[in-house]
């Protein structure tokens, strides 16, 4: 299946995935307090009596910028596989967090995926499925580099046309 | 080309640095050790289970901000239900009593639950001061403090 190694496919998927993550980071960056409240609702890394508020607050501060940074790198096509790896790790984390709330019967009214104000999407099975779909894209970008010959063509300046047979 | 793991580490590390910088200088940041359920301007006192128990023994009035079904199962003895989602209707019959009480404690389902802060804030808007048991109901039961079952206070 040579088309799976086509550089244009990789570039297009990276732009879509990157755009999703940049968009997702927008409100979280603008409203750190609201996003921190959502992190609390999950009750995965506190706050609680043992570890206090710091871990949850740090996550709320660092996660949106990591999403934005990985998203921008994916869109720009810089460090694409590494950025995709970061996104894949983030998505696994989200899956674990949502799975945790479902398992423990914690009702998270707003998953904090794209919006942090008021009610958003509920953390539920539908969310698990869409996270899995995004994870498939991220894992694909992280695992498989585009065809070697085509990648060379992509790297050399001015050579924007993809060879007809890049096998 | 193989994945460079140093870059994989560098991305979240840069995210953390950017996030901390933004948190420090954007004017929208949060106190890293503080409770984000508290808003600026909130004058809500947060207390722990042991302190709440002491206040109960001194005759403090407890308010249960959880959904009514949880209250009906069990609650702090003497507590009245004042669920966040039904605040206005539940507040009316309690208003006189609350205005005569100076020691009020609100609780909900624990650290991940915001209802007690919301209720305390709405009470403050009406000029009624209430402390929040920020560890909530789980801390109360874990400590082995008394509980009352059924829908009666």
What can you tell me about this protein's structure?
- The complex is a heterodimer of chains A (167) and B (153).
- Chain A has six helices and no strands.
- Chain A has 167 residues and is an all-alpha fold.
- The radius of gyration of chain A is 18 Å and the shape is elongated.
- The model of chain A has no long low-confidence stretch (mean pLDDT 88).
- Chain B has 153 residues and is an alpha/beta fold.
- Chain B folds into two domains: 1-32; 46-149, Rhodanese-like domain (Oxidized Rhodanese, domain 1, 3-Layer(aba) Sandwich).
- Chain B is 44% helix and 12% strand.
- Chain B has a five-stranded parallel sheet. Chain B has a two-stranded antiparallel sheet with strand order 3-7.
- Chain B is elongated, with a radius of gyration of 20 Å.
- The N and C termini of chain B lie far apart (68 Å).
- The chains are: A mainly alpha (167), B alpha/beta (153).
- The A-B interface holds A 29-33, 36-37, 40-43, 46-49, 52-54, 57-58, 60-70, 73, 79, 81-83, 85-86, 89, 106, 142, 145 and B 1, 3-4, 7-8, 11-12, 14-16, 18-20, 22-23, 28-37, 39, 110-112, 114, 135, 139.
Entry keywords:
heterodimer, A: 167 residues, mainly alpha, 6 helices, 0% strand, elongated, B: 153 residues, alpha/beta, Oxidized Rhodanese, domain 1, five-stranded parallel β-sheet, two-stranded antiparallel sheet, 12% strand
On the 0 to 100 scale, the average pLDDT of chain B is 95
Rg from alpha-carbon coordinates of chain B = 20 Å
Shape estimate of chain B: elongated
Largest sheet of chain B: 5 strands, parallel
CATH superfamily of the largest domain in chain B: Rhodanese-like domain
Question: What is the rounded distance between the termini of chain A?
Answer: 10 Å
Helix content of chain B: 40-55%
The largest β sheet of chain A comes out as: none
**Strand tally of chain A, please?**
0
Low-confidence stretches of chain B: none
Order of helices and strands of chain A: HHHHHH
